[in-house]
Amino acid sequence: MELAVFIMFALLAVVFAVVVVAHRDPVKSTMSMVVTLFSLAVLFVLLGAPFIAALQVLLYTGAILVLFLFVIMLLNIQKEISLPAGRTLQRLVSLAAAAFFVSFLGMLFWVRYADAPQPPYTEAYLSIRALAAELFTTFLLPFELVGLLLLVAVVAASLLARAPADPDKEEATQARAPESEGREREKQRVAEPSGVEVSNGGEP
Amino acid sequence: VSPELQLSLILFAVVLGVMTGVVAPIMVWVERRGAALMQDRRGPNRVGPFGLIQPLADALKFIFKEDIIPANADRTMYLLGPVLALVPAFTAFMVIPFGPAVTYQGVEVNLVVVDGEAGVLILLALASLGVYSLVTAGYGSNNKYSLMGSVRASAQLISYELALAMAVLAVLIPAGSFRLTEVVAYQQANGWNLWLQLPGFLVFLVAAFAETNRLPFDLPEAESELVAGYATEYGSMKFALFFMGEYINMATLSALLATLYLGGWSLYPGWVPPEGWLGVAAGAAILGAKIAAMMAFYVWVRWSFPRFRYDQLMRLGWKVLLPIALATVAVVAALTVAGWY
Fold this sequence. Notes:
By secondary structure, chain A is mainly α. Chain A is built from ten helices and no strands.
């Protein structure tokens, strides 16, 4: 039963991963990626990690790929045009490169993990509590660093999302701001110090 | 087959049957009669007593209508839309506890289809897949109104899911578990979360309307601007499936809200259910009553409020709901650590 489910979803994952790359319609590529990531979540459940599976579906399929679709549809990206026929050499070379990469990765995993000792996959080892304990003790520093990285990314993203105003006008208001502008304006500037600093540096 | 799995399968079948056979038709009737009531009309009252058989007549009409696929539609995506509307809606119900634990074939079993450690996360994950139905439907229809609806749906659902998940997280912190059975047990001991976490409750309530595409947040459909949004090109039974998906989603989120904030299947904090299957029946009835009350609230709000503008909707999500939800999480976490919760 477990093996049957594994084979089914492993096949789904692989087949739709190929479709992601091969399909010419970007929306369908993204939808195929949804299937792939969902199948991976099922494999996580089979490995006894329902928490990771739920996060995988919640974050990747439920949020990130929806964002992909949103951008694709918003920018109205068209279907890719297939290469004109007769580029046999290019195709052969890409196939060979892909084959090499796959076998290289496969070999790497084989050498690294074939004889590696298995951790005890008990219920306690796989529990959310144990995961949290590991994250906040053994891996505290990397965990916090990742948090910091995400924060920086969020600040940068919201800065990029702000409409780039007319550069001359912007400089003028900033120069005037401390003296002539009202207190309201100053408060606003103070409220987002990081944004102002970086935007000054970014302006030509 | 173990007793747990047997009970799970029976429960799943019952839920599925009740959802399609009872909740969806009754909601159609409640919505139409409710609208009529609020607009001082009579509403559908010809078929059966009080028009109660009207949903059946509607369903028959849907089934016998000509089934059309637009010539320029993307066939796979177009047909996938209604299917994707139903599947996540049905499966998300799995983690809601329907009553107190019961002894079945000598084993003590929690009355939940899936009582996994990830608990409510599974529900949120499956609910987050619901957006794909709107996206595939809108894209597959090959119609500008449909596509506009899809684009709106994808932006809207992401924004509101975040606030929703944060509100849920604030409930889970004091309960100390992702399992909804534990959340109910916590409320049995400490009182309903409705009072303990009022801001989180309000965020959840508002986000639930956006999550189910109901007025005042039904921007993906917005019949006054987008014809019918993502559903413009759909007719006959395929359109009915979208409708059913919407009602079942409403029921799922109502059940989640009742479980997280209104004590779930418990009548009041500290209520001791009757022994055995009588307790199960009582618990299920109480949860059902809470869900019904929430659904009636949905209908009431739908016919009371005008639709938000799209930018207002996005602003509300990111600049009001999310900060409130984040603050709730922070405060609740601090209070829990301090031992006040």
